[in-house]
């Protein structure tokens, strides 16, 4: 009997321009769920999904019907990506990598996927949204260790709350139990990792952390 994979990969419909992100996150190590047009990306990069979900209202052609496909109504209360995550959670997964969930033509979908990060966290999970250059994390009352990312740009924002209290280690601009405030001076934007191992500790509140590597 095959060993159950420990993590879930969600592939969304935003374009993925190269296979670099799949080399960093090899799909064969994950239970792969494609959300709507994400199945076209999977086909482009010869990835075999474990499940495909969506209303398929924005694809060239829907996937062929099979046990792997769950067709959803266009009129529904959740996005295709949120439904994919809910399926992953229902299967017992608590660790997610979300690809094809940044950028694209719909900025509102990117914002909605930040809410999906919060949904995962509120259901005792953790996740990263990633593309070739960017990683997005949502951290509450815990710490994020960043390894092998020296010289990457880091921006931190309070999320869903008025403020968050933080300490940084291994970043150019240090913080020690200092607060970032929503609608404040944006002092959390464009910091830089200066060490091989860096850490952002969130003492209170929720922090949206964006890491950019050129």
Describe, in short, the structure shown.
With 214 residues, this protein is of the alpha/beta class. The protein contains four helices and 14 strands. The protein has helices at 20-24, 38-44, 80-90, 107-122; strands spanning 7-11, 30-35, 51-54, 69-71, 95-99, 126-130, 134-140, 143-147, 153-158, 163-169, 178-181, 191-192, 197-204, 206-212.
Describe the protein in words.
The chain is α/β, with parallel strands linked by helices. 18% of the residues lie in helices and 35% in strands. The chain has four helices and 14 strands. The chain has helices spanning 20-24, 38-44, 80-90, 107-122, and strands at 7-11, 30-35, 51-54, 69-71, 95-99, 126-130, 134-140, 143-147, 153-158, 163-169, 178-181, 191-192, 197-204, 206-212. Strand 10 and strand 11 (178-181) form a beta hairpin. It is globular, with a radius of gyration of 18 Å. It starts with 6 loop residues before the first strand and ends with a strand. The mean pLDDT is 93.
């Amino acid at each position: 009997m095959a060993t159950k994979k420990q993590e879930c990969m969600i592939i969304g419909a935003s374009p993925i321009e190269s296979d670099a992100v799949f080399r960093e996150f090899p799909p064969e190590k994950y239970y792969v769920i494609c959300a709507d047009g994400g199945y076209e990306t999977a086909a482009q990069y010869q990835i075999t999904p474990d499940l495909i979900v969506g209303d398929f209202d924005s694809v060239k052609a829907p996937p062929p019907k099979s046990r792997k496909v769950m067709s959803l109504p266009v009129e529904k209360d959740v996005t295709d990506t949120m439904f994919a995550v809910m399926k992953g959670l229902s299967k017992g997964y608590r660790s997610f990598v979300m690809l094809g969930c940044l950028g694209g033509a719909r900025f509102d979908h990117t914002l909605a996927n930040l809410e999906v990060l919060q949904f995962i966290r509120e259901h005792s999970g953790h996740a990263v949204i990633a593309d070739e250059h960017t990683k997005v994390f949502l951290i509450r009352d815990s710490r994020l260790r960043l390894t092998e990312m020296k010289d990457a740009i880091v921006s931190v924002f309070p999320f869903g709350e008025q403020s968050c209290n933080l300490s940084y280690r291994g970043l150019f601009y240090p913080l020690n139990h200092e607060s970032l405030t929503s609608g404040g001076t944006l002092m959390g934007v464009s910091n830089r990792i200066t060490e091989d191992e860096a850490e952002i500790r969130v003492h209170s509140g929720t922090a949206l952390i964006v890491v950019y590597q050129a």
